[in-house]
Amino acid sequence: MNIKMNEVLEYIQKNIPITKELGVSINKYTGDLIVIDAPLAANINHKNSAFGGSLSSIAILSAWALLFVKQKELKLDVTLVIQESKFSFLFPVLKDFQALAYTPKEEDFTRFLKILNKKGKARLKIYSEIICEGKVCGTHEGSYVAIKNK
Residue 139 forms beta bridges with which residues? Predict the structure, then answer.
């Protein structure tokens, strides 16, 4: 199934309105990762670096968007939510930046799908990074839950 990223972005902006204010766009999706671009100007703080809340939010969004696209590819009728999030701030972000979310290992994703089919609910850890000028400036580890719609 060919998922159009502009349609994914439209869905996100309609259903998560703050994403419009964050100025995010989906740069690419390869099946193994999704890349979300974000401008510093929309996410700047009083120190002329990216606001920590924006960095965390955009990292969370990238991982959620990756799982959302996977759900669409697999034609799963589920609701996706984040259960837990850990963000580490490594370096200040001083220019436009990207959030890269990575598809989990195949065996973890297969186990996730098996549990989802059996129990109607499953949890999956997804990792993402904030990249600025080729440098990892932040890391996110989130636990995302898929719940089958009835």
Answer: 88, 129
Confidence check: pLDDT of 1 > 70 = no
Quick check: 117 and 129 in contact, CB under 8 A? no
Contact indicator for 63, 125 with CB cutoff of 8 Å: no
Q: Which pTM does this prediction carry?
A: 0.95
Q: How many residues would you count in the chain?
A: 150
Residue type at 63 in one-letter notation: A
Nearest to 100 by CA among 71, 58, 69: 58
Helices and strands counted in the chain (H then E): 4, 6
Domains (ranges, CATH) in the chain? 5-148 (3.10.129.10)
Left (φ > 0), alpha (ψ -120 to 50) or beta: where does 4 sit? beta
Q: Side chain identity at 106, as an amino acid letter?
A: E
Q: What is the pLDDT of residue 101?
A: 98
Which tokens in the block code for residue 12? 């996100």
